[in-house]
């Protein structure tokens, strides 16, 4: 061992000596090369300076040549001018000759300077090539020195590692054996965890497939609902067009009535005119009857529209319930995926715990399958109802179009006859035409007399009259709701201007242009939307602060389920029990007192009630905090309640 160490030491000393010698030689060679490089660099700098001086001299000569050329041109022009006056001016010719001689000398100097510049450039190029060769030689020498240094270091490291290699080899052998045993154990645990992971992966894949199917069905239902809404909007627009047509027909009827009155005042002047008036009266009666029939058909169409809107609202409620259930399934799927990630990251845990967790997840999967089946049946029922509502809307629309076409054709023919007869009467009696024109002018200049409170009340004895009256009441109710919403949001509309806008909108005499109407209506909608959003935001913050101090069982969006009293046990499916539901606003206004009724627990119950019963258990009590829009469709909100009103529901059960 000592001999090996001595040999190693001697080899190291010889290597050090040889490395020092090589290093010294290399340094000397580098010093010589650097000296040559410095000398060449100095010579090159001198040549560059001389080249710059020559370039400056050439530029100066070029300036002189330009000046002499300019002088030559001036003298030539001068000579040309003076030669016309006198041909014996020797002084000018001598000056011109001197200038030309100077110009020739300057050109010779430029040629010599150019030759000197070319020579200098050639010498500079030679020096540059020599400099580049020296630089390349220097780089080669540096690389050789670097290689020798690295070789010396490698030899030293190999000599040092030779003595330590035996000791490290034994330690490494022991570490390899320990790592092999650990690797075998890890492989065993990994195989068990991989089996658990594959089971979970299959479960999650099945759930994702069912969820994708449910989402496709939900998308189809949404598209069907959108088509129903489009059909409803189309029907509404056509009803509005019919109303406008009726108003125009009424205006024409009023004009004919005025003409009939004027004709009646001068009836004694002509027997022929009396006969024509009688014919006009009969035709006016026919038109009035047609208008009455058209109004009744319009009222029937409005009733069908109201029924379709109610059916659409019911479908919207079912769709919202399906959407909430879909959200719950997504949350459960996310929880399962998180559980899988946790199992993947904790592969060192015991296999029994993983197997038990897999059993629990399989049970949860079975429950989810049941919920998916129930939701599928509910969705099919909702789709069937939507199809029936769409068919009803289509039938109503076809009936309305047929009735409108018949009424328009009949009224157009009758009006054409009346207008022809009126033209004949007007042409036959010039005096009567003058009187009618005077009366029409007087009526146009007269002020409109408003209806007095003592006007004759409407006749509501026929179903058609009652339906028309109900349509007006419905429009007034919509206007009342709009005014109540604006007032609650802090708006104070001018009633006189509001009623004037309603009147002008009905008669078609709008006082603003389309651009102003669009701009101002968008401004009103934006302002009210901002205020309503602020109400929602403050309501959410209030509910979060209120439920933070209580035992929150569940939160779904803006719906909070809080425990009042814990039940004795979970409620079973189709179990009979007594349920009480109390409805009130968060401010204390009671809308429905909780009367106990007998019922059966089922997943088909409304979502808030079903969730409260499931979370509270038998004999429990749960409070539900939410917005009114979470419970009521937009058109069914009770009076004095708005979509952003905070509500409180208390659900209690007893066996």
Automatic annotation (TrEMBL):
UniProt keyword terms in alphabetical order: Coiled coil
Residues in coiled coil: 232-297
UniProt-annotated stretches for the region Disordered: 1-33
Source species, domain of life: Bacteria
Feature: compositional bias, Basic and acidic residues: 1-19
One BP term from GO: protein folding
Protein name, per record: Uncharacterized protein
Organism (species): Serratia ureilytica
Lineage: Bacteria, Pseudomonadati, Pseudomonadota, Gammaproteobacteria, Enterobacterales
